[in-house]
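User: Second chain of the day. Same drill as before.
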Amino acid sequence: MLSAENMNSFSRRDFLKLSALSLLGLWLPLPTFSKQLFPNLQGRVIDTTITVFDLPSFSGNRVKVYWKDAVIPITEVTVGDELPEHNRVWYRIGEEGYAHSGTIQPVQTELQEPVLDIPQGGNLAEVTVPYTDAHWGPGKEYEVAYRLYYLTTHWVASCVTDQDNKPWYQIIDDKWEFVYYAPATHLRIIPLVELSPLSSHVPPRAKRIEVNTHLQTVIAYEWERPVFMARAATGAVFSNGDFSTPAGRHFTNHKRPSRHMAAGNLAYNGYDLPGVPWVSYITEEGIAIHGTYWHNDYGRPRSHGCINLTPQAAKWIFRWSHPLVPPHEQRVYETYGTPVDVI
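Assistant: Same format as last time:
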């Protein structure tokens, strides 16, 4: 975390180092790191295709193409050339070359021990593999309902077994009230300690969040001292309208640890996104600070009005801000919340 003194002496080079690491949800004083530090680090291709170059630059030679949802090794993170200016972070893909970070989601593959006894009301869980397919029934013989991606969050209602005695979690969709099933080894029941509030000793009146749409940053303050910063992607102008994040003072009075977000025509800037993690709404129209898994390209406006963060950063804001969400509750809606100044 950054102190006020460190913020004042923050150089452009330091900011680029932070950018490289914040796109992995990490806070380390290094411009690059190797696979030795994170031996299981992988990347999931987000776009339809990505290109691997021999250098960390779009002017390099093209050496390979990967398709959507391919899982590839990330062996190094580095800062590339001057373009694109907002995001110069590149990932080294094994010995093949380099790919730009914006269209690769950093992931890991961590299989879980299933929890067989789910309490009434359910448990919050997160996906711990690059992706898993949720089916309409407990088994792969059922049709796929949705593909669930790494670090998305979902409400697990029960654990059942398929015809081969393998465990599946029953998931309740919070928007459409669908019920579908995912392999229990692919989701982690989130322990209560990870849902506890951060900086609970600090009174709510001393907390404030600043969203800078020019710098594309989110900074959290305690007593006007910066204690957390993350790069963001705020609202943009699209062909079908201006979705800029509204300026002014707002409050995080409505929060949900998981939300299925869907709107519009999928062929025309619409979206259908189950399991959006760590949602802190700031307007009645649905503008929120939340985690993002459909891009990794922070530093420029590109959302439909929301403030996109990495899931790790959004989780920090969710736990730190007010009001607090009880561990087994799917939402909280109050008349108060942490101030959010969008400038």
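The chain has three helices and 28 strands.

User: Great, on to the next one.
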